[in-house]
From TrEMBL:
Database matches in InterPro entries: KdpC
Single annotated GO MF: P-type potassium transmembrane transporter activity
Protein name according to UniProt: Potassium-transporting ATPase KdpC subunit
Organism for this UniProt entry: Actinokineospora spheciospongiae
One Pfam family in the UniProt entry: KdpC
Record function comment: Part of the high-affinity ATP-driven potassium transport (or Kdp) system, which catalyzes the hydrolysis of ATP coupled with the electrogenic transport of potassium into the cytoplasm. This subunit acts as a catalytic chaperone that increases the ATP-binding affinity of the ATP-hydrolyzing subunit KdpB by the formation of a transient KdpB/KdpC/ATP ternary complex.
Location (main, coarse): membrane
Membrane topology recorded in Swiss-Prot or TrEMBL: Single-pass membrane protein
Record's GO cellular component terms: plasma membrane
Keyword Glycoprotein: no
Protein family according to the UniProt entry: Belongs to the KdpC family.
Length: 180
């Protein structure tokens, strides 16, 4: 048997083995681990605040809108010069202003522009602040106490200048559920 045929057969065997390992065994293993009890409840990842968990109703803080069709993650190809994009953003601004009882010019940008992945749990402090009166009213809590919770779930800039100041909505809503 020639060296070329031996090398081709070795490459083919390696291709088959790697196809089985990376295309069958690994995905099956990930799927099996995801089904273990205690990793998620009601389709919500537990013991993590790294993923945005949207809650329905006015008694919860809302995440940024999502450009993804969950459970998949992925963005939209519409840019800021697309008329459809402008219409969607304007509709979102009107809806948020109505829900929060404020003028449209008070609605922060992150309340109306989508998160590409739909997985980001963070919003701006301005958007969280806008939602405090509604959440407090719906839950029968004082605004002062809800603002304290928001402050506790607000991250600061790394080293004082790296990144943005954000509020983790997943952690904040869990704190509301747990009573603080």
């Amino acid at each position: 048997m020639s060296t070329l045929v031996k090398q081709a057969l070795a490459g083919l065997r390696l291709l088959l083995v790697l196809t089985v390992v990376t295309g069958v065994l690994y995905p099956a293993g990930v799927w099996a681990v995801s089904r273990l009890p205690g990793l998620h409840d009601n389709a919500e990842a537990v013991n993590t605040t790294l993923v945005g968990v949207a809650r329905e109703g006015d008694g919860w803080f809302h995440l940024r809108p999502s450009a993804a069709t969950l459970p998949a993650s992925g963005g939209s190809n519409k840019s800021q010069v697309n008329p459809d994009y402008d219409r969607v953003v304007a509709d979102r601004r009107t809806e948020v202003a109505r829900r929060e009882g404020v003028a449209e010019d008070r609605v922060p940008q992150d309340a109306v522009t989508a998160s590409a992945s739909g997985l980001d749990p963070h919003i701006s402090p301005a958007y969280a602040d806008l939602q405090v009166p509604r959440v407090a009213r719906e839950r029968g809590l004082s605004e002062r106490w809800v603002r304290k919770l928001v402050a506790e779930h607000t991250s600061r800039r790394g080293l004082g200048f790296v990144g943005e100041v954000t509020v983790n909505v997943t952690a904040l809503n869990r704190a509301l559920t747990d009573g603080g």
